Amino acid sequence: MSYPQVAAFDLDYTVWPCFCDTHLNPPFKPVASKNGEVRTLVDSHGYEISFYKDVPRILEDLKAHDVKIVSASRTWAPDIARDLLRGFKVEYNGKIVPLITLFDSLQWGEKSKVIHITLGIKELFGKKADIKDYKSCLFDDETRNRDVERYGVKYVYVKDPEKGTTWEIYQKYLNGN
Ligand SMILES: [Mg+2]
Predict the structure, then answer these.
(1) Which of 21, 86, 93, 159 sits at a 20 to 30 Å CA gap from 73?
(2) What pLDDT, in 10s, does the model give residues 19-35?
(3) Which position among 10, 43, 83, 140 bears the catalytic label?
């Protein structure tokens, strides 16, 4: 298995099954589970949103292998994305933490994924850091973002909007398939 130095994740239909800028209306209320995790939030219209179930396990495994994690999203509603990532709570190293704490760099807004990842790498490794010098990948559901491969970033296609980023997709990527 071969781990990258940087793993970037799109948000909508990669981490959760909706467009957070058009489908959701804050504020959100948590639905707490017995162990204190919050895997579901309810918006002000009663719409329930949960992250894809394998996402925390994947992020935890990446962090256990010293991989830096970048959130790369073109969302028009960074406030809503932040509310969700702060609202979701997951068990990590025996503690309950907001999902947002598992991300090392948040790169959001109307820019290309190449720019998101470039800015993330510069934030994490210094101004002179070059995207081409780091082993990286992008999990993303939109094939137009495959253009990151021109910069040496491995594009990992998240093709099923029902399942999102799964452990299976992640393992295939690590095993070079
Ligand atoms: Mg997406």
Answers:
(1) 93
(2) 988 899 999 999 989 99
(3) 10
- Is 1 part of any domain? no
What's the pTM? 0.97
Place of tokens 């820019």: 111
Integer CA distances (angstroms), 150 to 20, 63, 72, 131, 163, in order: 28, 26, 17, 11, 27
Owning domain of residue 154: 6-174
Single-letter amino acid code for the residue at 29: K
Token digits for 17?
């099954």
How far apart are the CA of 157 and the centre of ligand 1, in A? 10
Span from the CA of 46 to the centroid of ligand 1 (angstroms): 23
Q: Read off the pLDDT of residues 52-108 as tens digits, 9 standing for 90 and up.
A: 999 999 999 999 999 999 999 998 899 999 999 999 999 999 999 999 999 999 999
* 111 contacts 124 by C-beta, under 8 angstroms: no
